[in-house]
Amino acid sequence: MNKQHLTIINHPLVQHKLTIMRKKEVSTAGFRRLLREISLLLAYEVTRELELTTTTIETPICEMQAPTLEGKKLALISILRAGNGLLDGILELIPGARVGFVGLYRDPETLQPVEYYCKVPNALDARMTIVVDPMLATGNSSVAAIDKLKEHGAKNLRFLCLLAAPEGVERMRQAHPDVPVFTAALDERLDDHGYIVPGLGDAGDRMFGTK
Ligand code: URA
């Protein structure tokens, strides 16, 4: 594989906002606002390699060949439920994107992800497909979601998260070496409950105000 598998988006604004999001005293509203802001910056990086073509336009001065995105609209796939927090911000930047959802829960006996919902855009084989989930922890749900998207034909995939654990990155690298992972930070490890350390807690609870 030529493409870099892991990209850490270390833009100063991303790092500053992430530090605030990690703080336990940040309110639900504050967390949500920061997540929306940070997702715009992350989206900018993850779409850096979108293909361009040219189109003829007329400015008030003259005709020109101007760059424009090539091919079909990209697909954003949110892994429910926490993925929706990243999705909302990215859609502000790329309002024409097609959107899909994959819902997975963890079977309490086998601890393996079980799908309960899947609805994805058509023609995934012709779209850049960006899978979003703020926390890449064990990697089990990300791997299962990407398995599913490949069954639906997706070929040009990226995985975008806010925080990653080394365990999750390795799991993704083993299962899907062709899918580059973009994250704002690579944390130390997982704890015994599968939480990222130092992390930011449960991303879904923090963005939706649940416990
Ligand atoms: N999911 C979360 O929301 N937080 C973690 O730390 C790990 C998985």
Describe the structure.
- By secondary structure, this protein is α/β, with parallel strands linked by helices.
- It has a single domain (6-48, 70-208), classed as Rossmann fold, CATH 3.40.50.
- Helix content is 33%, strand content 29%.
- The chain has six helices and 14 strands.
- Strand 5 (98-106) and strand 6 (113-119) form a beta hairpin.
- The longest helix has 19 residues, at 28-46.
- Bound molecules: uracil.
Topology, please?
Blueprint: E1 6-8, H1 12-22, H2 28-46, E2 52-58, E3 63-69, E4 75-80, H3 83-93, E5 98-106, E6 113-119, E7 128-132, E8 135-136, H4 140-151, E9 156-160, E10 163-164, H5 166-175, E11 181-183, E12 185-186, E13 189-190, E14 196-197, H6 203-208
Parallel strand pairs: 1-11, 4-5, 4-7, 7-9, 8-10, 9-11, 10-12
Antiparallel strand pairs: 2-3, 5-6, 13-14
Bound molecules: uracil.
Uracil binds next to helix 6.
* Main structural class: alpha/beta
Quick check: average pLDDT?
Answer: 95
Report the sheet-strand fraction. Answer: 25-35%
Q: What is the top-level CATH class? A: Alpha Beta
- Counting DSSP E segments of at least 2 residues, the number of strands comes to 14
Number of helices: 6
Give the terminus-to-terminus CA distance.
41 Å
Number of domains: 1
Bound molecules: uracil
Global outline: globular
| Residues in helix, % | 25-40%
Strand order of the largest sheet: 1-11-9-7-4-5-6
What is the element string, with H for helices and E for strands?
Answer: EHHEEEHEEEEHEEHEEEEH
**What is the second-level CATH architecture?**
3-Layer(aba) Sandwich
Q: Point out poorly predicted stretches.
A: none
Radius of gyration: 18 Å
Largest sheet: 7 strands, mixed
